[in-house]
Amino acid sequence: MTLTFASLGLQPTLLNTLNELDYDDPTPIQAQAIPLALSGKDILGQAQTGTGKTAAFTLPVLHQMSGYALQTLILAPTRELAIQVSQAVYQYSKGMDLKVLPVYGGTAYDRQIRRIKKGVQVIVGTPGRTLDLINKGILRLDDIRYVILDEADEMLRLGFIEDVESILSSVPKTNRQTLLFSATFSNPVLRLAQNYMQDPVHVEIEAEQVTADNIDQHYFVVRNADKVEALSRLLETETYQNVLVFTRTKVGSAELAQTLIDRGYPAVAIHGDLAQNERERILRGFRDGKLNVLVATDVVGRGVDLSDITHVINYDVPQLPIDYVHRIGRTGRAGRAGTAMTFITGKEHYRIKKIESFIETKISKAKLPTGEDVQTARDTRMRAKLVAHIDKVVQDGTDDFELIDSLLADGYDAEQIVSGMMAMLRAESNDYPIGEIRDVHQRSGETRREKRKRKRKSNNREKYDDANMVRLVMSVGKSSGVRPGDVVRSIASTAQIPGSSIGAIKIQRHKTFVDVPQTHVQAVLTKAKTAHVRGERAHVQRA
Ligand code: AMP
Fold first, then answer.
1. DSSP string, 403-420
2. Which of 239, 276, 310, 311 is found 20 to 30 A from 394 (Cα to Cα)?
3. What is the DSSP string of 15-44?
4. 53-64 and 12-20 helices cross at what angle (nearest 10)?
5. What is the DSSP letter of 226?
6. Which pLDDT tens digit goes with each residue over 201-225?
7. What is the mean pLDDT of the chain?
8. Model-wide pTM > 0.85
């Protein structure tokens, strides 16, 4: 049975929050530390960042807190970590009416003092500034019941030992619970524990090997809506043997596998609910080379033993840095080279940062293949296939002499015949139409002026109401891979009307309906009578 947050004994408000944050199950350090901390024990926790240690100490403390006094003091070695931990506490305490404040040096005291005077229940501070505020009589420690030392080894390494000891001796001893987390337990850390903690229980999770030198690691910034297209492009352009694609949810993995199958890729999803024999059948297909793209979630990905995985693609970036390590460890086995690619949305840069600091390696940002790259890769594959056939007929001869002779006799030359055959091949190929991917940075790099302009433009759009619109029809549709953006671009540029004036667009298989304001119809029908959409000529007329 897998442990749940509820079975660890956390209260409903916290469970709700964790649910909202999409935390499915406790991580190993959480599963060990939370029940012990809830039973009031002092804890010596050995865990690296990226293992979920912040929640491991924050959740049980939040569960036990009540009232408005300053009750919890968290010490962290750096300003960055103090801010990060206070953000985590803030996030986990949603709905609990708690105030948390980070305090650190290098900034003015006023604001911090004002906030403390207004009332806070949790302080997350660097040792130096925290001690200053205590000495100034601003931080009152009488009601402190929970003290947490985060990354204790790092605090000592940075020379904060005396500050930390002064702080710990100023906090009341009775009724105090002390939690100390550290990646390593050197003697000074253990001495600190011995002097300032009550019979601490030691919990630890195995330190993981996090090096992956022979794995090429990249990430791509891509909107959620464009991920399928992005993945398809990688599958078209990368040279791979087997690919393991990780999604965050089980449902997501099944849906993604189906979408890939619909696009013609040999994909399959594997998840925990499958019967054992079904799972084995899938894995056999994978080993035999009949299926090359396996879509999985973390839980399953960890359990399956597959060699020859050349690529791991994180379709959804893992929440836990340690899971990133587990995932990419599936490739680059036995000293072979491997590639790990990770999709992040524009808001997920911080996740890459966390992973990078966990693995102590930079993950390079890469550009997705363009539509042209995909076409080139397809052409190269087609050429290779063709050459193989040509070589074979050169060697074995052909039975098609009569057909070839009759074509030549009709006056077609070799180039024309080959061109016709190529067109036939292309028409019959099952290649999925290449779609578009919107540049994520288009918006984020926007200046204020550009933003105002964009807003004004979208307001303008509302001025064209339905009554003044005329419906036109174009002779291209889904079968040519047409997307709304193509239609707008094509009509707006050819007829020289504002793109924002174009109304509803309905794309069918072989045709597309588009609404244009009455005032612009004439311009469109004269200038854009034949427009170019996705490289095809389209006729435009009244619907
Ligand atoms: P930490 O080791 O505390 O720095 O946490 C690393 C990351 O894991 C943070 O971004 C957390 O939001 C995330 N995290 C912590 N616990 C869980 C969990 N049980 N499930 C999913 N993500 C988690």
1. HHHHHHHTT--HHHHHHH
2. 239
3. HHHHHHTT--S--HHHHHHHHHHHTT--EE
4. 150
5. G
6. 999 887 665 556 788 999 999 999 9
7. 88
8. no
